[in-house]
Design goal:
This is Cytochrome c biogenesis protein CycY. The protein is an alpha/beta fold. The protein is built from 28 helices and ten strands. It is extended.
Length: 641
């Protein structure tokens, strides 16, 4: 306790000394005594510029050192009475003018009446002078607005103008004006106000109304747990925002109500206990991390778990433990319900994963050392040139499918060198390359001891082929991936020197997260169709609404519904909708076949025949065509019955 008191005394002395030093740096024209400044202003009929500052305020100190001494500022302030008010020296003046942030600049007329204010300093003298003049002009404009309101106090447009003008100097005051306008005419307010402002004010007013009703219910039924729980839920709705900050005035009230409800014995005791445990952990400043970790372990499926994981993520970031932060963020993103919070989590997760991947990139590319060049001249990588090093094999179907694409890229970008490296022997690769001829129009080499594969593939933990690496003009590996997935997009950017790794990888991570979420919803539909049809329908709708270009996903959803789901649980309309949307994305024979089956099961026989006929006409492979034709005959037979 003595040590604490001593430290507090030292801090106080330090603050007072700092205040004195800052005051000493001010130009001579500045007053430090507010009473004397007011007296001078009256005598000389000059306005007062009152600057409210604090010794601990960095911007305040910067203004003293870099702005107030400027010649243009000193000349401008000759027409004013500038006074420097330190919050430690004049706390009563700070309270009188309701100053809540530093620095705050209050403009007063010669009689001491406020004529304007603004918060925050400026970088230079010109900017500072402009802010003073803008504040003066604002006061003139406010006088015009007040005149209009005196004539028509309920004019919504004028009230909005007053609130907007007030918001630059007094946010709380602006909110009060907005709320007044909303209560006068809510419809007109919602029509004229900025959408974000309108939504915020509407929610505030509705919250107050809800609390008022809840208070009445609690007073009416003080021995019943239910009103307390209802009021707690209202408080919680006001507390947690999309960025997970909370209102310290309402969150403790929610906790108190829930604790009271527990005393009274609610029906859903376990759920209330769960929420109380979470809120208690959340508000524990000293042990929040430990308690939230315990909560997550005990209640992995709780609606509060995404919030707890987010808080643990934030704590890990503060301690600079990026790996731990990513793990918590991943769990939060997995468990968060759809909405802006989930979108934010996924975006931040994608950004962090991209940042980690960027850190692994940009290493110096290993020098090429191969057993033999099968096609093209030997390559020595030099600065100033771009290289694509692709690992492949003759037996690999995806590798063979990538060959035409690599040839096209080599022909298109002559200032890049593409090298295909196989770890097979020359006796296998050479005849393959000779057979391909001009279809394989880029450099080919063999790496039969896998030294290159180890240097590139193993470094990044890559096991599958084909896989390509781009080496930039500085000899750094800047990208790696499947040749058919991103190479054509990234290569020209690397050549032009404008490849933004972080932005590219973030976008890819978001796409990957969305794909995983779609796949989870797709699988979840079939898992829940029997025992939880409402959840299944929700998941199916998610797939439909969020699949923009994946015809295969939609086709698979429709086909599996039509062929795997028991008839009594089968949603034909959902299958029709999914197959139809798939056709809009990619009208191929397989999807026409699916859509025809959906039409047939829905009793739309003519539609089924028409679409199956298209599937048949689009197919060349005999065995598949015969199967489609047999199905078509089945539909035609049904039409005659």
């Amino acid at each position: 306790m003595k040590l604490f008191a001593r430290n507090l005394l030292l801090l106080t002395i330090s603050a007072l000394m700092t205040s004195s030093v800052i005051g000493a740096d001010l130009p001579d024209q500045w007053y430090k005594d507010f009473a004397k400044a007011k007296q001078t202003a009256k005598q000389e009929d000059k306005p007062i510029l009152a600057v409210f500052s604090a010794a601990w305020c960095g911007p305040c100190q910067a203004m003293v050192k870099s702005v107030y001494p400027k010649d243009n500022v000193k000349q401008y302030l000759n027409d004013w009475v500038p006074v420097y008010i330190d919050e430690a020296d004049y706390p009563q003046v700070v309270r009188k003018f309701n100053v809540r942030a530093f620095p705050t600049f209050v403009l007063l007329n010669s009689q001491g009446a406020e004529a304007g204010r603004f918060v925050g300093g400026a970088q230079d003298g010109e900017g500072f002078i402009k802010r003073i003049e803008d504040a003066s002009a604002m006061q003139e404009k406010m006088a015009e607005i007040e005149k209009k309101l005196a004539e028509n106090p309920g004019d919504i447009q004028t009230l909005l103008e007053k609130a907007e003008l007030t918001s630059s100097v007094d946010r709380n005051g602006a909110v009060e004006i907005y709320e007044k306008a909303y209560r006068i005419d809510s419809d007109k307010f919602m029509e004229l106000a900025d959408p974000q402002v309108a939504s915020y004010i509407k929610n505030r007013v509705e919250f107050e109304q809800q609390i008022k009703r809840a208070n009445a219910m609690v007073e009416k039924n003080p021995e019943n747990a239910r009103p307390y729980i209802k009021r707690a839920n209202i408080y919680l709705g006001d507390s947690f925002t999309k960025d997970l900050s909370y209102n310290p005035a309402t969150l403790p009230k929610a906790l108190a109500d829930l604790q009271k409800a527990l005393e009274l014995g609610p029906k859903n005791t376990e759920q209330v206990e769960e929420t109380v445990t979470f809120l208690t952990a959340w508000q524990d400043q000293e042990n929040a991390d430990d308690k939230l970790a315990e909560f997550v372990e005990k209640y992995p499926d709780s609606a509060h778990t995404p919030f707890a994981q987010y808080r643990l993520y934030a704590s890990a970031m503060e301690s600079e433990n990026a790996d731990k932060a990513v793990k918590h963020l991943e769990q939060a993103a997995k468990t968060a319900p759809d909405g802006r919070f989930a979108d934010w989590l996924n975006a931040r997760l994608a950004e962090m994963n991209a940042e980690q991947e960027v850190e692994k990139l940009n290493i110096e590319a290993p020098k090429l050392s191969v057993a033999e060049y099968i096609k093209g001249e030997p390559v020595t990588m030099t600065e100033g040139n771009v290289y694509v090093i692709e690992f492949w094999a003759t037996w690999c179907p995806p590798c063979r499918a990538s060959i035409p694409h690599l040839t096209e890229l080599q022909e298109k970008y002559e200032n890049a060198t593409i090298i295909g490296i196989s770890n097979e022997g020359a006796d296998k690769v050479k005849p393959f390359v000779e057979e391909k001829g001009d279809e394989m129009a880029y450099t080919v080499a063999v790496d039969d001891d896998r030294s290159m594969s180890k240097a590139y593939m193993d470094t990044y933990g890559v096991r599958g082929i084909p896989h390509a690496f781009i080496v930039d003009q500085q000899g750094k590996i800047v990208w790696h991936g499947h040749p058919l997935d991103g190479l054509d997009e990234v290569l020209p950017q690397v050549i032009d020197g404008n490849f933004d790794q972080l932005a590219y990888l973030k976008e890819k991570k978001l796409e990957q997260a969305q794909s995983e979420k779609l796949l989870a919803a797709y699988k979840g539909y079939f898992q829940n169709i029997k025992d939880n049809p409402e959840k299944a329908e929700e998941q199916a709708q998610y797939v439909l609404e969020n699949t923009e270009d994946d015809a295969n996903m939609l086709n698979a959803l429709a086909w599996r519904i039509l062929t795997n789901v028991p008839e009594e649980k089968r949603d034909i309309n959902l299958a029709l909708e999914a197959a139809k949307k798939a056709l809009e994305i990619d009208p191929n024979a397989q999807i026409y076949d699916t859509y025809a089956l959906a039409c047939f099961q829905a009793g739309q026989i003519e539609e089924a025949i028409a679409n199956q006929s298209k599937a048949v006409s689009m197919t060349e492979e005999k065995e598949w065509k015969d199967k489609l034709q047999a199905t078509l005959e089945k539909y035609k037979a049904a039409a005659t019955q």
